[in-house]
């Protein structure tokens, strides 16, 4: 049975068979635990034994009694089912037992081999232990024999050893003066002091003996001479800091006054450190040949700061036992020299005016800050490290101001380039959008470049970047507010200044530049400001702990600047056209002029300039909304000549009351007409801009006409000019009735001031204008 193999069940894969095998093993183990009365931890469960003879699992089971009970209580079918169930359980238990024995067969064999091998190994070990025990017994016997032999001579050997040690000490004492002289000749001062310290207590104890008294006097004379040489070496000042510290240490061991040595030590150290400061100051004065700021900081750290740290460490090591007296002297010494060093560093940093490569300055400040941390570790409580970080903060703040000035200068230079480009004639009309795009892109790229340079102050590998200032206030107030927000405000303010130039033509500012800047400010309001501030906040992880300028405030300021620039552009362009109209009215004799045969050239020029402005504005602004045009807008006749007012006003018979009635009718008509605001703010679209320019031009034309007196042909010339303007200007404005009303007013005013008001026929006017 042990060698038989369980055949695998057909139709079951390896994994299923393996899983079912594990289940069967757990089931068999569970049954065995149940049979032996073990719990999950392998301990026997304490249960009361069952006395029921019908309990098949109990120790008092009685087969006959169990069968009689079944036959008595169960039917035939139930008996058959009970038999079938019991047969299945017997077979299952047999199969499980067979499987359990088969699976553990190899373990049984291995355990048997292991037990056999252990028996052999323990037998060999017992032999070795017996041998070891015999050897230990022999060694013990030999040791007892040797101890017994040497016991008599042990006391004598100990006595001789003590005498030998004493003789060596006496020899050292008698040779001490010669040894000290030899050390003095070789300048082995440390060895001489150590030798004297070893013998000083013995000589003082036995100084009452003449021989020891002589040795003591000789040693004192030699050590006095040695102390004098150490003092001379200390005063000379040519020694290094390490040699100086050794001199002080030896003098302290020779019982020199500690406070006097403190002052001398610091005085000597001051002279050496001041020479380092003088060398640094010499590098600042000849600025053209001065080294880079990083080289300057490196020299200061390698020479001055390193020497200062060495002085602090040596001082503390030498005078540690005199802390109360020495601490104050050291702090005052360090604070004084550090203040002078910081002054030189700030002077050198202030000379860094260029903003090309910021990495050199940041690396120099990082090195400066790192080396000062050594002072903080050596001298806790010193204000030197805090003053150093203040210098770094001031340098970073000053650098931000320099970058702001550089951005402002770049912006003004860019505007100068734009003005030169606008002054250069170009064939392509699309040059204006290209100039705007180029200007906006160049400014944005410059801002990004500046932010990248400033971001070096907050890089992770920079030691001072983890300071609270650089994590908070520098990012929010230094970069966001002082740099980015101030530059955006500068763009808006400098743009508004172009509107403050005096003169009818806007001074020296080209009108197209006003238009370009208005569109630039409008783009800033719609998208650029939000993009720049979002970029700044993300790049510098700005946390708004302190109050900052909201984006909406900057956008309102940019929109206000754009509105002011566009209004000024409308005013300037309107005044340019008005100037032409004013001169054309003032320089003509309207009473004695000839009969009109064509449109005046100035009117053609007005239409040409208006068309050019329309194209110019359309390159930067959208079309806008117009009111519906009538189908005959260009052919419209003026009401003053087609209405009953014309017939009443220009009837063949003039009565004294006729002018009064005409003026009354005209004034009543004005009362019920919509008021026209000539200099109202325009909207950000082409139609509104053109409407504003045309309103200013026609209003100027009207006011000039009201100041002149006209003859018959003068009135007719005004009719022709106004009709020509009507043919073209209506298509530029948002409401054509505005043009009709103003031109109506011009013709009416001419008629009121005409000495012989005889209007020209409408058909003749149309022929002249079409021919013109």
Automatic annotation (TrEMBL):
Any one GO CC term of the record: EARP complex
Record InterPro entries: Cullin_repeat-like_dom_sf (IPR016159), Vps51 (IPR014812)
Coiled coil: none
Keywords on record: Coiled coil, Endosome, Golgi apparatus, Lipid transport, Protein transport, Transport
Any one GO BP annotation for this protein: endocytic recycling
Subcellular location: Golgi apparatus, trans-Golgi network; Recycling endosome
Described function: Involved in retrograde transport from early and late endosomes to the late Golgi. The GARP complex is required for the maintenance of protein retrieval from endosomes to the TGN, acid hydrolase sorting, lysosome function, endosomal cholesterol traffic and autophagy. Acts as component of the EARP complex that is involved in endocytic recycling.
Entry's family note: Belongs to the VPS51 family.
The name this protein goes by in its record: Vacuolar protein sorting-associated protein 51 homolog
Organism of this sequence: Scophthalmus maximus (Turbot)
